[in-house]
Write a sequence for this structure.
């Protein structure tokens, strides 16, 4: 197993280079494109340039290195030409070979029976016959509908196709309603549907209890005045001008120590004396007054809205004229009470009493009660119809089911006959295929005993078919028995016509099986180190999941969580996974996030915990690597905050302006719905120019490196201060603080 890797003075790495230490059985390396991942995988693939790059093996015991990267794809994808076969471990015997030949003869015999059965064509004929039987029954039922359609028009509503009407006839064939004559049914239809009405809902009375409570509150008759034991209290009481004094306080601040009205010099601390007069009790009474004013306004608004809703119904059971005139009188009193409340607010020391609206409420609710009595009486009248109508509908369908009974009996008998034929064909087909499957499995099992490329060929083809790649497959090469050839379904060679996705997937499957075998039969059981360098290029999301699942299976087995698969990957001792794709990283490291008690936890790893590394490139185009105790990859948005926080802590030389702009763009534009113009409007004049400079990166530097840009420490300090200020001034400082605290 590899314990350390050191790379320097090549590609993105300077003389200091990078060093990966304390490597474990599973190691994740995450980095954007261009940060030097391929340099690492290419070095491990060839172990070139040993003077600069170093690798330390545990106990100085070197293992075979298997590296999947772009070079592996280019070197190992031969298109329509021969591909080196992958041998698997086993033993070759004459008995096994003979047994396989006998099993294949049994398969050939079953194949002959399947041909004679002609399952597909037979099934098509039965399906066509059932369709014809259904159509005949539909037509017969439709004829009955047309015959009685005018009489039973109301009952047949919605059954406007032959299929719908026939299905309804089938469900009603067991109808046990009374069988009446057509004349009797027509008479009942006229009686019930002629009087058909819908029930009316009752009107909810208007609740006046809250308004009555508000009207009777003591605050309206309370004289709200200041504190008695203040020096000025006697004079204010004598003049009875507490309200006038309270209003005059607001002018003192601009009066320069003089009375704002008579201009005479005021005594020292006059304003403090006044404030003492209007003490805490006074302020609480004022607050209570304001609360009751708002309370009265809200309650009356709700009452008025309820009245408007009742009037909008124009319910014929309600005396709308009387209801409207009474509600207008009520509204008039409410308006008058609001004016009284305003006067109380202007003159808190005065006593006021609100007009009672109890009389109007009593009239309105009495009108509602009278209307509800009429509605209840009306609903009772039509209630009998609602009971008789379903009974009538059952009787109509009893009549119809009797009319179609002969057609249904014939339809049922013919359909059962065809279903029986279909069941027999299906059973024969299932018997043949059930016999075929274990024989086929036994053949594959015995082939696996051979030191041969056939098991790998079969396994790759099975995976291709399973995941929808049916346009090509592997076959043994005619020219070279120890090689494969990729051919189309008709046997022709692909001749370089595979898409990039197809090419990538089949090459990955080839590599995946190579990990469990070898292109040389004498090195099948060698221990090995495996490297995956972004194995997802040109793959859609579905195949990405398949690839990540296969890799995850290996990592879990290696960390002790795949006991059932342990023998399958027994030769793999260490894995490196390098990627720039966050989604792929999530998939292949998913076991590290499981929380269920029944699934893998980090404590399960014991001494086989994975290592996590982040590759980054600074402004000088030099790559650095940082190790992490746990998985550092959350989301791209969190990575941006992580870079910002690292700069704040260590002054890392990064393209800070681009990082800050992308955070602002994502959060304010896409989450908070605030564009750059609104942000700039909230800033001070001195900050606006800096903000415009920062946000202009949206067009010139948001997704690329601006070679001509001059970024200095001075600029970065300004950008950091402005960045925090933007969150503060836009009212989102809490999000800034949360992200700075949550990012490790």
């Amino acid at each position: 197993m590899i314990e350390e890797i050191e790379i320097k003075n090549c590609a993105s790495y300077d003389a200091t280079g990078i060093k990966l230490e304390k490597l474990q059985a599973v190691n994740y390396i995450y980095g954007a494109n261009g940060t030097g991942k391929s340099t690492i995988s290419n070095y491990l693939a060839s172990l070139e340039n040993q003077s600069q790059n170093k690798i330390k093996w545990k106990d100085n015991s070197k293992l075979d290195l298997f590296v999947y990267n772009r070079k592996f794809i280019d070197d190992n994808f031969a298109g329509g030409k021969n591909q080196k076969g992958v041998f698997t471990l086993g033993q070759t015997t004459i008995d096994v070979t003979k047994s396989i030949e006998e099993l294949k003869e049994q398969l050939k015999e079953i194949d002959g029976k399947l041909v004679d059965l002609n399952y597909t064509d037979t099934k098509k004929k039965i399906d066509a016959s059932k369709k014809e039987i259904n159509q005949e029954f539909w037509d017969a039922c439709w004829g009955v509908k047309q015959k009685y359609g005018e009489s039973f028009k109301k009952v047949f509503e919605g059954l406007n196709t032959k299929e719908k009407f026939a299905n309804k006839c089938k469900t009603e064939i067991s109808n046990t309603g009374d069988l009446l004559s057509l004349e009797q049914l027509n008479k009942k239809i006229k009686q019930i549907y002629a009087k058909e009405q819908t029930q009316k809902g009752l009107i909810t009375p208007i609740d006046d209890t809250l308004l009555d409570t508000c009207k009777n509150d003591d605050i309206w008759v309370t004289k709200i005045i200041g504190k008695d034991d203040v020096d000025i209290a006697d004079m204010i009481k004598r003049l009875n001008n507490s309200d006038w004094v309270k209003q005059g306080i607001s002018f003192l601040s601009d009066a320069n120590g003089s009375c704002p009205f008579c201009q005479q010099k005021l005594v020292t601390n006059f304003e403090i004396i006044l404030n003492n007069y209007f003490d805490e009790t006074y302020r609480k009474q004022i607050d209570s007054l304001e609360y009751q004013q708002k309370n009265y306004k809200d309650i009356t608004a709700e009452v008025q809205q309820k009245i408007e809703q009742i009037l909008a119904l124009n319910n014929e059971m309600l005396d709308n004229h009387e209801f409207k005139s009474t509600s207008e009188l009520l509204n008039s009193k409410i308006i008058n009470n609001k004016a009284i409340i305003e006067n109380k607010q202007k003159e808190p020391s005065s006593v006021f009493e609100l007009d009672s609206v109890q009389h109007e409420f009593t009239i309105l609710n009495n009108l509602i009660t009278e209307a509800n009595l009429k509605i209840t009486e009306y609903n009772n009248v039509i209630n009998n119809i609602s009971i008789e109508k379903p009974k009538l509908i059952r009787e109509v369908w009893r009549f119809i089911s009797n009319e179609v009974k002969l057609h249904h009996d014939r339809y049922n008998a013919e359909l059962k006959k065809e279903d029986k034929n279909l069941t027999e064909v299906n059973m024969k087909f299932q018997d043949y295929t059930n016999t075929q499957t274990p024989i086929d499995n036994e053949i594959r099992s015995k082939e696996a005993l051979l030191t041969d490329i056939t098991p790998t060929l079969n396994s790759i083809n099975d995976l291709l078919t399973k995941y929808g790649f049916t346009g090509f497959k592997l076959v043994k090469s005619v020219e070279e028995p120890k090689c494969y050839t990729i051919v189309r379904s008709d046997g022709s060679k692909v001749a370089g016509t595979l898409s990039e996705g197809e090419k990538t997937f089949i090459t990955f499957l080839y590599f995946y099986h190579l990990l469990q075998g070898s292109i040389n039969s004498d090195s099948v059981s060698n221990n090995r180190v495996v490297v995956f360098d972004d194995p997802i290029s040109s793959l859609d999301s579905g195949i990405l999941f398949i690839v990540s699942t296969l890799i995850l299976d290996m990592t879990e087995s290696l960390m002790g969580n795949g006991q059932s698969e342990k023998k399958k990957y027994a030769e793999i001792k260490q894995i490196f996974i390098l990627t720039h794709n966050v989604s792929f990283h999530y998939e292949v490291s998913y076991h590290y996030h499981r929380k269920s008690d029944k699934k893998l936890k980090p404590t399960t790893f014991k001494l086989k915990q994975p290592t996590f590394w982040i590759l980054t490139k600074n402004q000088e185009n030099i790559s650095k690597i940082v190790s992490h105790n746990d998985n550092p990859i959350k989301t791209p948005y969190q990575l941006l905050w992580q870079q910002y926080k690292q700069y704040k802590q260590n002054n890392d030389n990064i393209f800070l302006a681009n990082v800050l702009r992308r955070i602002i763009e994502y959060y304010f534009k896409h989450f908070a719905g605030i564009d750059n113009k609104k942000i700039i409007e909230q800033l001070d004049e001195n900050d606006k120019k800096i903000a415009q400079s920062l946000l202009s990166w949206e067009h010139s530097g948001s997704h690329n490196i601006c070679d001509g840009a001059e970024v200095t420490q001075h600029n970065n300090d300004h950008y950091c201060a402005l960045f925090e200020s933007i969150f503060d001034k836009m009212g989102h400082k809490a999000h800034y603080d949360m992200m700075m605290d949550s990012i490790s």
Notes: The chain has a mean pLDDT of 77. Residues 158 and 164 are 9 Å apart (CA to CA). DSSP finds 25 helices and twelve strands in the chain. The radius of gyration is 44 Å.
